[in-house]
Amino acid sequence: MNAKNTICLWYDKDAEEAARFYAATFPDSKVTAVRRAPGDFPGGKAGDVLTVEFTVLGVPCVGLNGGPAFKHSEAFSFQVATDDQKETDRYWNAIVGNGGQESQCGWCKDRWGLSWQITPRTLTEAMAAGGAEAKRAFDAMMSMKKIDVAKIEAARRG
Question: Bridge-partner residues for 116, per DSSP?
């Protein structure tokens, strides 16, 4: 990896599977290296996959197979901006349909427990507009799991 700053994500033992899923799901995403442990370590043996270098939408990441000691939480999430309902549905359905779970307000978790915010640009733009437009869009969003672009746009118009 040549990046000065890289996101390190802790997995129990399936960082490579997660990285390959992200690479198959999101554009400008790929697995760039799989590194194997040179010796035994807590929860693993020499030759097991230790780290996986990958990108998600161009963001450099390392997946570390560190064992079950630490779990992902909502304190970290990838926020993915989408241009329309089709793109929103595609990412949401890929994550939730691969063993993930829905949450509220455009948030979902993948099967490894990593949180994702699938956020249509129209929602971000409405919030940036402020005032009554932002309030209407916000109120509409609060009742949603996956964001419904048409309902957000209708709320923006009032």
Answer: 78, 108
Listed by start position, the domains of the chain span 7-65, 77-157
Whole-angstrom CA distances from 18 to 23, 24, 31, 64, 84 are: 9, 10, 10, 11, 25
> What pTM was computed for the model?
0.94
Q: Tokens 């009032």, residue?
A: 158
In sequence order, what DSSP letters do the residues of 52-98 get, joined into one string? EEEEETTEEEEEEE--TT----TTSEEEEEESSHHHHHHHHHHHHHT
Comparing 7-65 with 77-157, is the CATH topology the same? yes
Taken as a whole, the chain contains a residue count of 158
DSSP letter for 132, please.
Answer: H
Q: Is the pLDDT of residue 1 over 80?
A: no
What is the reported pLDDT for 42? 82
The topology (CATH level 3) of 77-157 is 2,3-Dihydroxybiphenyl 1,2-Dioxygenase; domain 1 (3.10.180)
**pLDDT beyond 80 at 106:** yes
Band of the pLDDT at 154, cuts 50, 70, 90?
very high
Q: Considering the domain 7-65, what is its CATH architecture?
A: Roll (3.10)
Residue type, 106: G
